[in-house]
Automatic annotation (TrEMBL):
Homotetramer. It holds the Pfam family Glutaminase. The keyword NAD does not apply. Its EC number is 3.5.1.2. This is Glutaminase.
Amino acid sequence: MPQLSDVVAEIAAEMAARPDRGQVATYIPELGRVDPNQFAIAVALADGSVVEGGDCETFFSIQSVSKVFTLTLALGLAGDRLWNRVGREPSGSRFNSIVQLEQERGIPRNPFINAGAIAVTDMILSGHQPREALGEILRFLQFLSNDDSVFIDKAVAASEERTGYNNRALANFMKGFGVVDNPVEFVLGVYFHHCAIAMTARQLARSGSFLAHQGRNPATGHSVVTAERARRINAVMLTCGHYDGSGEFAYRVGLPGKSGVGGAILAIVPGKASVAVWAPGLDAAGNSHLGRIALERLTARMGWSIFGGSAAETS
Ligand SMILES: NC(=O)CC[C@H](N)C(=O)O
């Protein structure tokens, strides 16, 4: 078995040098200004240590990776009733698609496409002021990462607030079907801001650790969710975490994972590790181009695919 620290160093060196870097998202203008030549990888292990490579001190916009954590919070509030409002099947469509919503009477396919995540945010908001709901989401990430420097990048949130016509359409459409309870602008305000949470790769890897260890964060000893819930969140990440690129991600990487248009991916190696990668350039499905390749290298070298296979195979 190769040494993890060697593998991580090799991956960071390869990703820094590659010319194919994908395209940064420009539909949120503030994300369009991010330098695509950056790359970070952090692997949080069961003993609480983190193996790192690349730009691990740099804060990035976690965007849709935040949907893993809002789903976790909403399941804590609503339990399995959540699944009456949001499905758990892959959509086979782009992350911001509206096409299925009409046919399926406003019920989003899963909690990771934009429509589903907006419905989940609505559940967290119920009974609270937007500021309180947002504070709860931010504090949850500070608690999971065990680091109070996690923050909301107001410039990114404002940038999306100015240009988020598509998300407004999704939210209004669901409101028309009674799937969103709260005022649409309140729900979107919380949604845009939780997508604008900024973290480092180290913080993000630590935040996902509870999903790798049966609901318990091994670095802090905190129980976050039950083992059963962690398993189910991982299942939804595997099938839906990369939108219409989820099949390709499972095929190439073989881990539950969640991507965001800021270029981050959180991937879970059950029983072993929580991995955060960040490379701002995206592929055609809106997932990090080099982030996926880096994870593909990692699972092949370490034998970490959940589908089996030995270490150091070539892909
Ligand atoms: N895939 C993503 O990361 C999308 C999140 C982004 N905030 C949006 O709503 O469009």
